[in-house]
Amino acid sequence: MSFFEPDPKSGYKTVYDRPPIEQDLNVFERIREGCKQFKEEFGVFMGEVREHFRNDPIIVYRPNEVDVVWRFNGDPKSLDQWVVTCDSDHEEGFSTAKLEMSSTGTGIFSGVLSTRLPKDGRIKYAGYCNITTIPKYKSFKREINHDWTPYTHLILRVRGDGRSYAINLSTKGMYDLTWNDMYQYVLFTRGGPYWQYTRIPFSKFVFASKGRVQDRQNPIELNEIRNFGITLADDVSGHFKLEIDYIGLECDMYNVEESAYEGYDQTGIRF
């Protein structure tokens, strides 16, 4: 039994679609490259300072007004904001997945889900494909969280294939006990040519860790959102396709619910 996990990825190696270029630099070339990066990051830092002083905060969040967070909008660079993974990346299955741009400028998450098990006697369950946003950074490579405190709903405009997908909101904390904390909600898609507009209250998300729903349900800390992801793991082998237009946020002043699930005060109760 281990009381500490030294690796946030639990031993899984990072798999790249496009591996980073490895440079064999001497000491002076490293210094020159470091100065170049410092100049770039300092420019980003000064931009953040200027933005802070001329900040125009939103005073009133109007209902039915969606603030878009991620949108493909025909820009190939928008694909770089996402990471695609599946069980075959770690030799734990045979599923394949990809994220690409459609002819109309939307994002298409597609592939083949396979529940076939590798014959190694180690894997008991297989069949998942996932896309996740990359972490958000400030200047000098400082990782920060998304702050969605003023909002009450997650908005998605998607066109599905009739399969069920899981929406994931990662709230990874500082300590190893919270590295796998995640809030999930099932996205039921409709087949056919029509777009669907999905409006999910944050209070409906279920708290889970390492894929297991926790007995004690807590409201989402909306100022600690690290990543957004979509997972397919419905145990049905075959092709899948989910087209995504945008993912956004909405504030509903009449929605005051923090958690839709019952919580019990067990103080003083003896079982």
TrEMBL record:
Coiled-coil spans in chain: none
One record GO biological process: mitochondrial electron transport, NADH to ubiquinone
Residue span, NADH:ubiquinone oxidoreductase intermediate-associated protein domain: 75-244
GO CC entries: mitochondrion
GO molecular function term, any single one: unfolded protein binding
Keyword field contains Ubl conjugation: no
NADP found in the keyword field: no
Alphabetic keyword roster: Chaperone, Mitochondrion
Cell compartment(s), UniProt: Mitochondrion
InterPro entries linked to this entry: Galactose-bd-like_sf, NADH-UbQ_OxRdtase-assoc_prot30, NDUFAF1
Main location: mitochondrion
Family: Belongs to the CIA30 family.
This protein's name: Probable complex I intermediate-associated protein 30, mitochondrial
Organism listed in the record: Harpegnathos saltator
